[in-house]
């Protein structure tokens, strides 16, 4: 397991939008914006069944994330590695992530 510098760990816990990159069956890239949660070991992303990104991850078993700020000073972290479809995400997780990105009132709504 890679040990991250404290400032990188802190950055990954901020509510920045990530670009998830996977590979389509024809070899072309598929890139889509996602919200994520980082638990100190792995990144968790929710997507409905039947999406292109889930099909790509299930087939190839790897992905990349480009996590970046939207304002200056621009900062980013790129993560590449194995990826897998996990267990279905529950509403507790959805609310926690929505609150992280949208704030308490909007996230709970």
**Strand elements, count:** 6
Overall morphology: globular
Q: Quaternary state, please?
A: single chain
User: How many whole angstroms does the radius of gyration measure?
Assistant: 14 Å
Average pLDDT number = 91
CATH topology (level 3) name: Pnp Oxidase, Chain A
Major sheet characteristics = 4 strands, antiparallel
β-strand percent reads 25-35%
Number of helices: 4
Elements, N to C (H/E): HEEEEHEEHH
Which structural category fits the helices and strands?
alpha+beta
Considering DSSP H and I runs of 4 or more, what fraction of the residues is helical?
25-40%
Distance from first to last alpha carbon: 37 Å
Unreliable residue runs? none
When the domains are counted, the total is: 1
How do the strands of the widest beta sheet line up side by side?
Answer: 2-1-5-6
CATH superfamily: Electron Transport, Fmn-binding Protein, Chain A
CATH architecture: Roll
Give a verbal description of the structure.
This protein is α+β, with helices and mostly antiparallel strands. The protein has one domain (6-108): Roll (Pnp Oxidase, Chain A), CATH 2.30.110.10. The protein is 31% helix and 28% strand. The protein is built from 4 helices and 6 strands. The chain has helices at 6-13, 52-60, 91-102, 104-108, and strands spanning 18-23, 29-34, 37-38, 43-44, 62-68, 76-82. A hairpin with a 4-residue loop joins strand 3 (37-38) and strand 4 (43-44). The longest helix has 12 residues, at 91-102.
Could you give a quick summary of the protein structure above?
The chain has helices at residues 6-13, 52-60, 91-102, 104-108; strands at residues 18-23, 29-34, 37-38, 43-44, 62-68, 76-82.
